[in-house]
Amino acid sequence: AAGVIQSPRHLIKEKRETATLKCYPIPRHDTVYWYQQGPGQDPQFLISFYEKMQSDKGSIPDRFSAQQFSDYHSELNMSSLELGDSALYFCASSRTGLGQGRHEQYFGPGTRLTVT
Amino acid sequence: DAKTTQPTSMDCAEGRAANLPCNHSTISGNEYVYWYRQIHSQGPQYIIHGLKNNETNEMASLIITEDRKSSTLILPHATLRDTAVYYCDAGTGNQFYFGTGTSLTVIP
Question: Measured between CB atoms, does A111 come within 8 Å of chain B?
Fold first, then answer.
């Protein structure tokens, strides 16, 4: 079965640079979520999109922005990178449809961002 | 979301059942209990969820107490590949809250 695809898998950037992470959800999934997992920490929710509209916002820094496109893929844009942004970034997708509330999420393999 | 508490770590012998508890005493009536796990540095994996009734799928069983204040995830025959951090969450929001979780080690 098709899974969530994330690219790139690894990314090395310098401080103050920008980075763009991409996420391709499972076909027919309409909701995308972004999570950040720092070294030795648990994943933290950043932001989610349903049908190309932002649906929930978590602990996403103002330096980060994200969007979901018409083909449902999503991009996380990160500017003015700091050393503390070094982390695993996971994307997840779900098929929410018109139903409210929680739905099981399927996670991608993650993008490991290293800021030097 | 309801606050959840889980033991920090547990061991289980290979082939035996692993029973992972989760306390969610502040859960409200419409909040589902969800379980995920994360094998080292891989993307978290959905396991199972439930509202009131016990649930079973190909991966695990979920037992929810009648008052819904706690639940137990059961892996019926643990294998070495089940070594992971297991997270439970109870809520209605779209995002999943990864708390401390239980680090399960399956021992040969």
Answer: no
